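Supplementary Text 2. Reproducibility record for the structural model of the 213-residue chain.

All settings were left at their defaults, and a single model was retained for analysis rather than an ensemble. We include the record here because the model underlies the residue-level annotations in Supplementary Table 4.
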Amino acid sequence: MMVPPEAAQSTGKALEVWTAQTVCDLGILLSIVSFLLHIGRPYFDRILSRFSLRVAADIWWIVYIVLRDGTLFFALLFGLSHLNLDIMSDIKVGLPFVPFGTVSLAGALLFKVFRNTEDINTSFRRATYLVSLGAFLNTIGYVLVMEGAGEEYSAATTWFWKWMESLRSDENPQLATITFYLSWFVLVCFAAAATLKVMRLYRSVAGGEDKNV
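Retained model, structure tokens:
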């Protein structure tokens, strides 16, 4: 039995929307997990100090770093995947919280790449602040905007929840467009700064090698 082209197209679009919404939700969840791992460092440090074997301590620390920074990386990656106008018109994205949360996570990852954030210092605190801000914005966007009070709740008719619903990307294309431009402007600035930093690093390394020749 052949499926009508209209039905196949409708099914494909529904699957696309479901996948995009799931990836968006996973990105928000991973940002919260990364936040918990960042603020949970004292616990991991205490356990680390109790290992008598150096190998066991190294494995424990490596697992912690992989989980902490890995969840941050994938939270950013999933956040970027829906930060475009086409997808934001199809799914619920909490504006401007979730996109700005993605920008904050990008700033945190930038700190981790180019600064020493492993020791307890200013860079570590700034990176942790950015991760915390990103997780907070994502949580607000998810809980209050994307998954706010539904029609089955009488509170859904109040001005607050009506306003929260109006902040969904598929309900407010004007705000989605403004948020898109602002978010990508900052992200492009981050990318440009990272590129310049890397090029300066390569130049200094190449200069040092030339002197040694």
